[in-house]
Automatic annotation (TrEMBL):
Keyword check for Transmembrane helix: yes
Organism of origin: Actinacidiphila paucisporea
Name of protein: Integral membrane protein
Keywords from the named record: Membrane, Transmembrane, Transmembrane helix
Record region (Disordered): 1-21
Signal peptide: none
Parts of the chain that traverse the membrane: 43-67, 245-262, 269-293, 313-337, 379-396, 402-421
Length: 435
C-alpha cells in the first residue's frame, strides 16, 4: 500500500500523528511529574488518616466508657453492685465501720454514765482489765458489722446508696457533688453513714445499750484516691461530651484513609490492625496504671479492696478493649483473604475445593434454579452478608470480643451456604462423575 507524507494512502495527517512538538513534549513531561506527586500526596494523606484513627481508637474507647458508664444509672449500679459481695471490699467496709463505731464505744465512754464519786474506785478495780474489756467490745462490734456486711440487707443498701449517689458520681471528677459520693481533696469517697446506723440498731437489739452513744456520723469509704483526680476533671468533661461522636470520627478517618489509598485492601488491613494495636496499648496501659495506682495508695489502705474496686470500675473498658482487638483481627483477616496474594489464594482455593467436595460427597449435582441465581448475584450476596454482620455488630447494645467472634462465625457459615448453592462448578463435577 502506498503512503505519503500526509498520512496513510495519501490522506490527510491525523491529529497526534508524527513527532511531538516542543510544547506538547513539555506538557507531557509536566503531566508525568504531576501524577507521581499526586499519588505520593494521596498515599501520605491516607497513611496520616489511618494513623490518626489508630491513635483515636483507645481514646474513643475511654470516651464511650465515660459517657455510657457514667450516664447510665442502671449500668453503673450493675457495675458496682457485685462489690458488695466481694470479700476484700467487705473486709475493708467492716474495718472502716468498726473503727467509726469504736471511736464512741471505748471504756471511757462507757464509764461516763457512772457517778463521779464512784468512778475512781471503779477504774482502780478494773486495773489491767481495761484492755481486754475494750478488746471484747471491739470483737462484739466487729462481729455485728461483719454479719451485717455479709447480709443481703447490706447488698441492697449498697445498691441504693450507689443509685442515689449516681448523679454525684458523674459529677465527682467535675467537683459538682454534694451527696453520698463526692470529691474530697483528691479522693472519690462514698459515705457509709447509713451502714453505721444499721449496725447501731443491731447492737442495741443485742442488748449493748452503750451503742446509743454512737452519733450520726459521716463515714467516708474511699473508692478512688489519686493525685490525678483534680487534673482529670477537664478531660472527663471533654470525654463525656465527645463519648458518642469520637468513635464515629475514628471510623470516618479510617474509611477515608482506606478510600484514598492506591491499594485499598492493604490499607484496610493496616487500618484494622492499627486500631487493634491501639486498643491493645490501652489494655496494657490499664494494667500498668493499676500497678502504679496501688503502689501510691496511702498507708493503711486495704490494697486488695482498692484493686477489686479498680478492676470492677474499668471492667466495661476492658471488655471494649478486647472487643476492638478481636474486631480488628477479624476485619484484617477478612480483607487479607479477599485479596490476590499467594497464601490468600491458597486459602480461598482450599475453601472452594472443600465445599465442592462436600457437594460431590452428598451427591448434589445441581441446586435447581437457585444455583444459577446465586451464581449470578454471588458478589452482591457476599456483600449483603458482610453488611449484615456489620449491622448486627453496630446494633448490638454492648458487644464483647466473644460477640464479635460469633458474628464472624455466623457470617462465615452463611458464606459457606452461598458457596454451596453456587452452581458454577457443576460442569467440573459432571466431568469428575463421568470419568
Amino acid at each position: 500500500m502506498a503512503t505519503s507524507a500526509d498520512g496513510p494512502a495519501g490522506g490527510a495527517a491525523e491529529p497526534g500523528d508524527g513527532p511531538l512538538g516542543a510544547d506538547e513534549r513539555a506538557e507531557l513531561l509536566a503531566l508525568r511529574k504531576r501524577l507521581p506527586a499526586r499519588r505520593r500526596w494521596r498515599a501520605a494523606l491516607s497513611a496520616l488518616l489511618i494513623t490518626l484513627a489508630a491513635v483515636l481508637a483507645p481514646l474513643s474507647a475511654v470516651a464511650v466508657w465515660v459517657a455510657d458508664e457514667m450516664a447510665d444509672t442502671d449500668r453503673y449500679v450493675a457495675t458496682v453492685a457485685p462489690l458488695a459481695r466481694h470479700p476484700d471490699v467487705r473486709a475493708a467496709v467492716t474495718d472502716r465501720v468498726t473503727d467509726a463505731a469504736m471511736a464512741k464505744l471505748d471504756l471511757d465512754s462507757l464509764l461516763s454514765g457512772v457517778a463521779p464519786s464512784d468512778r475512781p474506785g471503779l477504774e482502780k478495780a478494773l486495773g489491767t482489765l481495761r484492755g481486754p474489756i475494750t478488746g471484747g467490745i471491739r470483737d462484739v462490734v466487729r462481729q455485728t458489722v461483719a454479719r451485717f456486711v455479709a447480709s443481703d440487707a447490706f447488698a441492697t443498701l449498697w445498691e441504693q446508696l450507689n443509685r442515689q449517689a449516681h448523679a454525684a458520681f458523674t459529677g465527682a471528677l467535675t467537683g459538682d457533688s454534694d451527696t453520698a459520693v463526692k470529691v474530697n481533696g483528691d479522693a472519690v469517697v462514698l459515705d457509709l453513714a447509713p451502714v453505721v446506723t444499721q449496725v447501731k440498731q443491731r447492737l442495741l437489739a443485742q442488748g449493748l445499750s452503750a451503742a446509743s452513744l454512737i452519733p450520726e456520723v459521716r463515714t467516708d469509704f474511699t473508692l478512688v484516691k489519686s493525685e490525678d483526680v483534680r487534673r482529670a476533671r477537664t478531660g472527663f468533661r471533654w470525654l463525656q461530651i465527645t463519648g458518642n461522636w469520637l468513635p464515629v470520627v475514628t471510623v470516618v478517618l479510617a474509611a477515608v484513609g482506606v478510600l484514598l489509598a492506591a491499594r485499598r485492601r492493604r490499607a484496610l488491613v493496616a487500618a484494622a490492625l492499627g486500631i487493634a494495636a491501639g486498643a491493645a496499648v490501652l489494655g496494657i496501659g490499664l494494667v500498668i496504671f493499676r500497678i502504679i495506682y496501688l503502689d501510691h495508695l496511702p498507708a493503711g489502705t486495704n490494697e486488695a479492696a482498692a484493686g477489686a474496686i479498680y478492676d470492677q470500675i474499668v471492667r466495661f473498658l476492658r471488655v471494649t478493649v478486647r472487643m476492638l482487638i478481636v474486631l480488628g483481627i477479624v476485619v484484617a483477616a477478612g480483607a487479607w483473604l479477599s485479596g490476590s496474594g499467594r497464601w490468600a489464594e491458597r486459602v480461598t482455593t482450599a475453601w472452594e475445593t472443600g465445599i465442592a467436595a462436600v457437594r460431590q460427597a452428598v451427591g448434589i449435582r445441581t441446586t435447581g434454579p437457585v444455583g444459577p441465581w446465586v451464581h449470578r448475584y454471588r458478589l452482591a450476596l457476599r456483600w449483603v452478608v458482610v453488611g449484615g454482620a456489620g449491622l448486627a455488630l453496630l446494633l448490638w447494645p454492648y458487644p464483647t470480643g466473644l460477640v464479635v467472634v460469633w458474628i464472624a462465625v455466623v457470617a462465615v457459615a452463611v458464606l459457606a451456604v452461598i458457596e454451596f448453592l453456587d452452581d458454577r462448578r457443576q460442569p467440573d463435577v459432571a466431568r469428575v462423575t463421568s470419568a
